[in-house]
Write a structure and sequence with these properties.
The protein is an alpha/beta fold and 280 residues long. Helices cover 30% and strands 24% of the residues. The chain has two domains: 137 residues, Rossmann fold (3-Layer(aba) Sandwich), CATH 3.40.50; 129 residues, Dihydrodipicolinate Reductase, domain 2. The protein is globular. The structure holds nicotinamide-adenine-dinucleotide. InterPro entries: Asp/hSer_DH_NAD-bd (IPR005106), Asp_DH (IPR002811), NAD(P)-bd_dom_sf (IPR036291).
């Protein structure tokens, strides 16, 4: 921590979420903006004080951040995650990056003196899921995300399947383990990645998910979480919890509106837990 009482925050990415966080940090009494980096730095001109614009992200240690917040793309963590953790706490906005086993292992190893923080985002009940995973009572977990096709940023076959969605009918684009979906929808399924990290006894291969493109969802992002605990799942006598989160979202947006304030709360909680990996 720096000598000033205010925590120095570096923000990586100046899209919708980055702009929201920068404004919230500047309005906060407890936080101080120490840098903003964006892939195209000209976007920041006139909006961010020149002294706070970081042109080359590898120069971040010179600005002495307490916490670095990534809200750009999973590729940032691939490139800089371990380096960030040598100098600061790191809150990863795009945890889909951790579907890469090698990267997950590298980051866990790197988080030995600073904390790697994972924001709950749109994942409702994350602490409960983690408690069940800790106790070994979590038996199965399925996350279903439903969005308008224009909110989906997809790669590979899924992109073509999404582009082929016509009319009003919802189409299930993917049904399977979280691990394979993350690289195909890196910007859209952070919630599922977080579920796989919270449900650590099942992980990216054990947590199941469904991604649905629904042309009727012009005002909402929907996340359904189904958890099964002890008992006989096939007989319908196991513990079961099913939540449905309807998050207002403008058509075409990656991030639903309640997720912005959730992110800001997570950022405020991303401190003081020491080294290791923490949900926040
Ligand atoms: N954890 C969660 O629950 C959650 C929720 C919403 C968004 N997110 C993630 O946060 C990130 C930002 O979301 P947003 O709504 O602000 O998106 P956005 O599209 O509005 O902004 C993304 C920003 O990152 C930049 N960017 C895109 N690709 C990049 C790359 N390869 N390298 C560097 N910069 C790149 C863009 O230029 C833009 O400035 C996304 O990765 C998104 O998936 C996570």
């Amino acid at each position: 921590m720096n000598t000033s009482d205010r925590r120095r925050i570096g923000v990586v990415g100046y899209g919708e979420l980055g702009q929201y966080l920068v404004k919230a940090i500047q309005e906060s009494e407890n936080l101080e903006l120490c840098f903003v980096w964006n892939r195209t730095s000209s976007v920041l001109n006139g909006k961010i004080d020149e002294t706070l614009i970081l042109k080359d992200l590898s120069d971040f240690p010179e600005l002495n951040p307490d916490l670095i917040v990534e809200v750009a793309h999973p590729s940032i963590t691939h490139q800089y995650g371990t380096e960030f953790l040598k100098h600061a706490d790191f809150m990863m906005g795009s945890p889909t990056a951790l579907a890469d086993k090698e990267l997950e292992s590298k980051l866990r190893t790197a988080a030995t003196s600073r904390g790697l923080y994972l924001p709950s985002g749109a994942f409702w009940g994350g602490e409960d899921v983690r408690k069940m995973a800790d106790l070994g009572t979590l038996k199965a977990l399925c996350v279903t995300m439903k969005k308008h096709p224009s909110s989906l940023r997809l790669n590979g076959d899924l992109r073509a399947r999404n582009e082929a969605v016509v009319g009003d009918n919802a189409v299930e684009l993917y049904n399977g383990p979280v691990r394979q979906l993350c690289p195909l929808a890196p910007n859209n399924v952070n919630t599922m990645a977080l579920a796989a990290l919270a449900a650590h006894n099942l992980g990216f291969d054990g947590v199941q998910c469904k991604l649905v493109a629904d042309p009727k969802l012009t005002d909402w992002h929907i996340v359904e979480v189904e958890v099964w605990g002890p008992g006989d799942i096939s007989a319908g006598t196991a513990f079961h919890c099913h939540t449905i989160r309807r998050n207002p979202a403008q058509i075409g947006k990656v991030t639903g509106s309640a997720t912005y304030s959730s992110f800001f709360s997570s950022m405020n909680r991303a401190c003081g837990k020491g080294h290791g990996v923490h949900l926040c």
